[in-house]
Structure prediction request, 1255 residues.
Amino acid sequence: MNIPGLQPERRAAFDRELRPRLIKGGIASVAWIVLVIIFSGFTTSLIISTAILLALYAVPWNMLRYGKWVVPSVAIVLAITYPYYRDDLYEVPLFGPFPSVDTAVTMTIFIMMAIGLNIVVGYAGLLDLGYVAFYAMGAYTAAWFASPHFGESVGNVHVGSVGVNPEAAGFHVSIWVVLIIAGIFTGIIGVLIGLPTLRLRGDYLAIVTLGFGEIMPQIARNGDNLFGTGFNLTNGAQGINPIDPPGFGETIAGWTGLPADYLSFSSTFLGREIGGIEVFYWTALGLLLFTVFCSVRLRDSRLGRAWIAIREDETAAAAMGIPLMRTKTWAYAAGAFFGGIAGAYYASFKSGTFPDDFFFNISVFILCMVILGGMGNVWGVILGGGFLAYLNQEGLGNIGAEINDTLGTNIDVPLYQFGIFGLILVLVMLFKPEGLIPSARRKAEFEEGAVSEEYLYDARGPVA
Amino acid sequence: MATQARRLPFPTLAGRLPQYIAPALAMLLVLLVVIWLGVNFIKTPSEFYRLFLIGLTNGAIYGLVALGYSLVYGILELINFAHGDVFMLGGMLVATMVSSFGLAGDSGLFLWSMILLMLMIVMAFCAVLNTTIELVAYRRLRHAPRLAPLITAIGMSFILQNVGLVWKGARPTSVDSILPRGEVFTISGVTYTWDKLIVLLFTVPVLLLLMWLVQKTRQGKAMRATAQDRDASAMMGINVNRTISFTFFIAGALAGSAGLLYALYITNIRYDEGFRLGLIAFTAAVIGGIGNLPGAVLGGLLIAMIESFNNGLGWATPGSDWTQSIIFALLIIILVFRPEGLLGEQVPEGG
Amino acid sequence: MILRKRGVLGFLILLVAVLALAAAGCGGDDDDGGDGGGGGGGAVEALPSASCGPIRQGEEEPDALIASDFPLQGANRSLTTEMADAIEYMLEQQDWKAGDTALGYQSCDDSTAQAGSWDSAKCSSNGRAYANNASVIGVIGTFNSGCAKLVIPIANRESLAMVSPANTYPGLTEGGPGTEAGEPDNYYPSGTRNYARVVWNDQFQGAANAQYADELGLKKIFILNDGETYGLGIATLFSDYAKKLGIQILGNQKWDKKASSYESLASRISSSGADAVFLGGIVCNNGGKLIKDIKAGAPNVQLLGPDGWTPISATIEGAGAAANSMYITQPGVPVDQLKGAGKEFVDGFTEAEGKAPNPYTAYAAQAAQVLLAAIEKGGTDRAAVSSALFETDVTDGIIGTFQIDENGDTTLGLVSVYQIKNGEETYVKSVTPELDFVEG
Prediction:
């Protein structure tokens, strides 16, 4: 039997790869199926989904022609069709049902932020503890350009806005334009923050970014009367809302059938009722794909290789003629860009933004995603980001409900949320510093110890 | 050798600008602050005294916490984010002890011996806690890239905060006021109270003791040697691991004592207080020159003064809304223009 | 070395797996059919278990659901869980039915543990969950006005009725003093109202506080606010009304809830020569420490607080002896002075729960009563329930006799003043500001 897309002479190598993976994966799948059946009963979806995962894992796709596209494209198709089969999925023991579409939107947005941070931390090796500042900038940009906020102080501007009264006060710019503005604006802010601070050594940089991350919410909180001028920039602790929903407007909607305005959208598509939430999800997914694409292309570009060179050895990189400051600043700008887009989209999704949304915990939360997934590896970060965002949004609550339900206890699992995140940070760093899915290069760095910070010998032993 | 390479002179923005610009800007800033303080002093002198005394007291507490950061950074070049949370747990322990010993309303010798007992307990508790953290979270990573222990430090900080949250809840825990709050003296209508004096009376000897420990004792020499060059000191027969543990032990004990003072003087403690105060204290340590012990206390005083004056003064004052931003802006300015801090030398070392 | 690392990691994973299995397994045998509240009962679709408790219901399978939306974690926990209990109690009183509609009830949480209060992401996600779940015909909530700003527009697009027992921010229902441009219309994109509240808004409370301060003969007042939607709002309103009464306002300043001490703030107050301080904000924002420091730095000032300082026991617990002599106002009659249906509720609830309800608990029960009455009229049609809210005419309800006007505001206006004396709350009197004074 010939396998399509595989040269016959490579058949033996293919089998050699396949067999152990099939055995390993098979055992894991059977164990998983048994586990799920015991605790939540049998469903067809369990068998199908496990079979798909097994096929993706066990077959050495890379050996086949066009094989390297199989895993990503299956993943993308699965992600896109998620709202269609989500309700039929089985219940995971302890975790309960699969994340709702609503949660999936949040997960996708946080993955975007994690990928943005990954550029700074993972590629360029600059620890940024104030990433929340970029998220905040994005969210406030959306709030400024797509809400009634500036109606009184500045005036009314309408550019392709949807879902709002044409006479409504304030700036109402189409969300698509707002996303671009937000990305560019935060990118510029990233450069501005970066220029003076990027000269600092690693941990000093961390503390300075942390400082920025703390100043930003305070500006948001006190920006209703900025520096006593009476100008209301951020509307203070009240936050700015409502922020306009995304949408394509009546005209385009009339031609194409795309939603005119996400919030009031409802239609039937491929036999399923589609509401605003699904459209929000697909849009987020589109933005995520764009982010992933850019991130991967950036990594493989000249700039990306310069980042990695700097991460591995700054002095050597400089000696090879890499302009340190410019390269680092680009990393900051790129990371900030995606953070800004994600922030703006999230604000539009939540339809409001509040200064309390932007505290240090969020920065660490996003950092945690990058670390757990594997610094520098986009796929790892997607996995880590998705899982942690799910835990935060739905998972911990579900686990709590499940535990209390079965044991009859009253444990408040979400109460342990940031302890759990802290534990993840510590455990991953101690035992698997390269993350769940390590990038090969990063793994080598961690196992050898840093190239640039090598000690002459191990001072660990009892010398005295 | 390798350690030498890690301590290249700080590359600063100042290096790029004409040499006189940074000092000139700094002078201008200082001048503005002096004018601001001066005008306020002339307008409301008694207010000024009062705020000065408040700042002095808070500064002593900040200084105590900052010392711990400074010690640890001096020896490991690690920002021990968990330090502030160790301090917070110490404060919570004191809160528990005060209420379970039923100290409210007590006075005299009994009260003082109980406070002393609590001090011993809380110092031991925090010292052991801090040493354990080093053992669990940092020791394995002694040879990992610098980011690794920094990240575990953040993780430990979160874990400890969660412990505090589960222990005492999200609402601030109120501690019974047991320090005497009577009057010591009064100048121009401003009363200096005993509780403030006690805080100062505690901090000064602690600082002196610590200086003595670091400068004069064998252990202190080992600490300084390890801070200077870990490898060389290991070759000289210093047990590096034990020295580092000892440093964490001392830093923890300092955090514990600060926790006691904080709980008794401020009489309120919340689970995220440690993190917030830790950031302030770290800023203090950096401003003073990290690794420099008197510098840490000086930085603490400076920040507390800024905070106090900014919150309380009347003329041309940004007000309490901006205190945090001012402190962090100062941190950024210092790090960018003078990373070695006010008292630090070009190369920051322990002691 | 690497092997050893793997070994430890493998062991940890194994340990977690075993623990997880043990946790899931222990109850597995006796609870096979049950499903963590996720799958729901029969005809109705349950709200997600991540933020909502299991469906509570009577004997009958429910035809529809109502949900409550409160911050169940953090500083307000005891109050908000009691409010949820009160709603359940009210449903039980009616045999889980409103007219012909059998009802189920889920108590949802809009807070996160680390914030210790409401969270904007949680609020809007809850709002979407209610709006998109056709089984939900009414929501009792929210607790916080900031959260309401997010939930109301989402619910409004689906004509889902909301009754709040605790939102006091005026802009949610009407324009005028203390609101922003565009309010309240920007919360109602469909153009039809769906939101009512049974508690008086802050315009009345601010006016009542100012009036009472005037009665006390206070002439110079310093205002502090916590900078949040509620605190800033009531502080501004109080300031406006107090100025109208000729009271001199010496300053209106934010207090930073994260600060460790307010001594310098207190010193500013004492040097301003104020004879009273109005604290516009909530006790959870480090209020205990604030009171302690103000009293230490300016011992002679009179403290005044709006209902953010309730439950008063929390203020007493946080500030200790420093809270003595502080006046705290709260909309409505004190629970022990309720009459008729109110007294019945208080007695019944005390018997069922073993403790007397908080004033806000009575409001939660009243909100439930209003919503149930609307469901009785409107059945399971969301729009009909929403419009029925505005025909509410309660005679001798739990908190008294009142109507809901076309804005969704209650017509029952009364603010009770309490004073803390020797660590106990004591009822002083009730104040009813004139409507002309409030609106003019």
Q: What stands out?
A: Chain A touches chain B through 61 residues (CB under 8 Å). Residues 11-40 of chain A form the longest helix (30 residues).
